[in-house]
Amino acid sequence: MAVRIETLTRRRSWTTRFGDRLAEASLLAATAVGLIALTVLLWTVLDQGATALNWPFIRNFASRIPERAGIWPPLVGTIYLMLLVTAASFPLGVGAAIYLEEFAPRNRLTSAIETNIANLAAVPSIIYGLLGLALFYRAMNLGRSLLTGALTLTLLVLPVIIIATREALRAVPHSIRLGAMALGATRWEAVYKQVLPIAIPGIMTGTILGLSRAIGETAPLLVAGAAAFVAFTPDHLLDAYSALPIQIFDWVRRPQPDFQALAAGAILVLLALLLTMNAIAIVIRNRYYRRNR
Amino acid sequence: MATETFTLTSHRKRPVERAIKIALFGCAAFSVLITVGIIYTLLVDTITFFGNVSIVDFLTKANWSPQSGSFGVLELVWGTMIITVGAMLVAGPLGVATAVYLSEYAPARVRRVVKPILEILAGVPTVVFGYFALNFITPELMRAIYSDCGIFNWGSAALVLGLFILPTVASLSEDAMRAVPSSLRQAGYGLGSSKLRVSMRVVLPAALSGVVAALILGISRAVGETMAVTIAAGATPQIAFSPCASVQTMTAYIVQVAGGEASTGSVEYGSIFALGSTLFAITLLLNSLSIRFVKRFREVY
């Protein structure tokens, strides 16, 4: 196609060709803005954060003195949150997706649930924070605990996991289900023994991407009562906790350049964590595609 | 899904199978429970709040100073609105131009590289965008134009928010443009149009509802975004035009109150739920509008 167009346009007048080139150049420039912005952003963080980044910074506790401040409690808090949120949201989300994709009759109730999930996925994250504050913090009296934070984030990622899992299930050819059931499997047996093993890489990719978004969330945790200054790592579910984004926010708000450097250091750790999760998701996805080809 | 398969299984009604099905339904129904929970918790405290503060004053007055008991939301709405408009002025044109380039001009190899990189930008936590506003946008860009710009200003908030939304707009618009059948493009070329003309007069109009849906979703994201605007725009509720002025958004106020120690049941505490309800209503409206545009687009192709 491209070749034919080239020959067509080559015969046009010089001015039109010039206009076309100019348009292409400006569109390319617009595309470059996003890429340049990302580069500058990463450079700013690296430039300022690299000096802060060392082993004591990772292992130290919060401190009012910049030289002694570290990110150990928020780092541990973020990892605990990640594990708890995965444990709670993965079974619920996958279960909901299996129901909607494999079992649900086509009726009003089903489509109401589907619309509801689509809407939930677009609710601003701070609203989940208000829900966590009213429901877990206050009504269930869990206070500023790790559990409050984990439950709040669970509600936040659930719609994302459901949507990703449904896509993975939909990609499994229908003949697999029919084949299993023709051999006498029940619907659940077909899903559990045939469909899920095929869909699991896609489900995991979607889940990891959803979780990596949740881990970077600040607003819901802040509103639902995460603390910025915690002098210990949480021992059990009802302990107070901090998380990396909360610690970053706390440091970013302080005017002294030393604290901005600490914030940049913590951002580097957070970005490294997110990058690792995304890399794992991509590796799983690539393996899955190769196997299916 | 085919009817024959249902008759096959219905011959063997096993209790375990039934129990599993009910449990899975429970998982799906749980999502409805979340929505009910959100609406219920928002409404309860909002209603209590409007028992203390007149709803008419709340919606029509532009004076937000909770300490002296006046809750005129328009000052916060202004903060949210002006930053959203600023962000869309960045993300709208750049996002659509990026989409046109990636969909119509870029070789497949370039697109395969550029799209994931842009998606990294969308995956950066917004608290990082706040840091970027304070440590780069304000000192390097804002002060290059307005030399006496304060550290907290809505201009920088709008710029970083625009960058945050750009990939969403670009990616969704590009999907819409790529879904336009190539026969339309061929017809355009057949009539002797240049590539630019085909892109602008054929592809863009054909993909318009998809592009509009992407823009609306971008607006909805900007309205609900919290951390970048809290960090970059400061905490001064006021109606101000200068990009160097500090403003407060609805979301930034929620963070300020919830992060502090406002006692449960106080009017201030109630006010964040009233703002939450307002925010929820606005974003729900925008999202349904966006979904409607996407549906219309799908019906055409």
Question: Can you describe what's shown?
Answer:
The complex is a heterodimer of chains A (293) and B (301). Chain A is mostly helical and 293 residues long. Helices cover 76% and strands 0% of the residues of chain A. Chain A has helices spanning 2-10, 14-49, 55-59, 72-103, 108-121, 125-139, 146-170, 174-182, 187-215, 219-223, 244-252, 257-292. In chain A, helix 2 crosses helix 12 (257-292), helix 8 runs antiparallel to helix 9 and helix 11 (244-252) packs antiparallel against helix 12. The radius of gyration of chain A is 24 Å and the shape is globular. By secondary structure, chain B is an all-alpha fold. Chain B has a two-stranded antiparallel ribbon. In chain B, 78% of the residues lie in helices and 1% in strands. The relative contact order of chain B is 0.14. In chain B, helix 4 packs antiparallel against helix 10. Chain B contains 13 helices and two strands, in the order αααββαααααααααα. Classes of the chains: A mainly alpha (293), B mainly alpha (301). Chains A and B meet through helix 1, helix 2, helix 4, helix 5 and helix 6 of A and helix 1, helix 2, helix 4, helix 5 and helix 6 of B.
Shape of chain B: globular
Amino-to-carboxy terminus distance of chain B: 25 Å
Low-confidence stretches of chain B: none
Looking at the structure, the CATH topology of the largest domain in chain A is MetI-like fold
Rg over alpha carbons of chain B: 24 Å
Structural class of chain B: mainly alpha
